[in-house]
Amino acid sequence: MIPKTIIEKEISHLSTTLKPISDEMHTWAEKSIFLKWGVLSRGKFHCLECTHSWKPESLSKSCEKYIKCRLCQGRLKMQGCNQVHFREIEYSAVLDVCQGYQVVRMICSHKHMKKNTLPSYFHKEVMQHWINPKGEVRTMSLSTNVFSNVYDAWQYYSPLEIRPKDFQNSPKYRINPYKVYPCMKLLTVLKRNGFKTSVYNIAPQILFTSLLKDSITETLLKSSQTSLLSYYLQSHEQHIKENWYAVKVCIKNNYVIKDYKIWEDYIALLRWFKKDLNCASFVCPENLHKVHDKLVAKKRELQRKKHLLKMRAEILKAQEVYAEEKKRFFGLCFTDENLTIKVLENVQDFMEDGDNLHHCVFTNEYYKKKDSLILSAKVYDTTVETIEVSLSNMEIVQCHGMKNNNSQYHEVIISIMKKNLYQISSRIKK
User: Fold this and answer.
1) Angle between helices 347-357 and 288-306 (to 10 degrees)
2) Domain of 406?
3) How far is CA 343 from the centre of its chain?
4) Is residue 189 in a domain?
5) What's 360's domain CATH number?
6) pLDDT digit string (tens) for 59-102?
7) Residue 121 belongs to some domain of the structure
8) C-alpha–C-alpha distance, residues 204 and 59, integer Å
9) For residue 215, how far is the Cα from the chain centroid?
């Protein structure tokens, strides 16, 4: 894209003044961001790091996932085939400052390995995120191969070019480097807002832009609520802003939220019961799952006793709206032996799933969520788990069985869903 505005022209010019990524940074990346690999070929272990080879002591050794190289003492992750050519791709980041901008420079590194040969490396700077003190960001990046199924198929021969503002909606923008180069250059305002040295496994460009313009991020970082910060910035389904008063009570009382999704459902129940969300005894329970299940049962009982007729009328009314919004997904069914996963087609099914598994899929009115698709997994007509899929991000948001715990079929259900997400996506397009 040709730079047109003053800011675009300024960033394009400043990019040419940055120092090239040094050999020292490349050496650090080669030692820090890649795994060490080994392979079993023709009855021998081969270290792809130092080229050493030796025979295994026993047959059981050849089945281990990790082994130790006898020569370089490296912990090798074993490949499960006789292939002798391997390639690993990983990202790292370098933090720089230029004319009042915080620059996050993304490096894509390739490690080429072959049996009996020392590994070779290739490094290329593929993106630069330019962030001003107000938290506004513009990105420069290489071009990508538009015919590839991989979103980061870089054209390494292309130059870094300024990208439009909506590039922030691209998955390429959210690439999270495996590690950040430890010698960091930072804007003073970032240090003032609480940033020290760690990005807590959050993409630096996302953390910095939020830290510069969002007081919630600053508060969470300064109070060392790093796991909650990661959830806030990386989960599309979080509700921290609307529950901010309750979050501040947790921070004040040093309460650690271990299951954020259940906690947010629990806060929604407290709000339904009109409880005081500034009270630590409510917001910071000792046994979160126990009090959550207790409120779910209490709400369900109230709905049954006091509002049974009204609830039936609402179900009929809600069914019309639900069927209109989700009818394109009706009929979707994924099977694997005795396991069947189907889209819930009736609001009544939400109530039955909630009753059978003692969770809040009905009491918290998941059938009203426009961005969610709810499916039910059954084994021999017995409901084992309920699945929620985000239609905008095409991700599995949650998948729970009895009392929001995972059933023995959880891994199989997740695997089946991931394989069949494309069917849901295809119906959206239609």
Assistant:
1) 130
2) 320-429
3) 24
4) no
5) 3.40.630.30
6) 666 678 888 998 999 899 888 666 668 889 999 999 999 999 99
7) yes
8) 45
9) 22
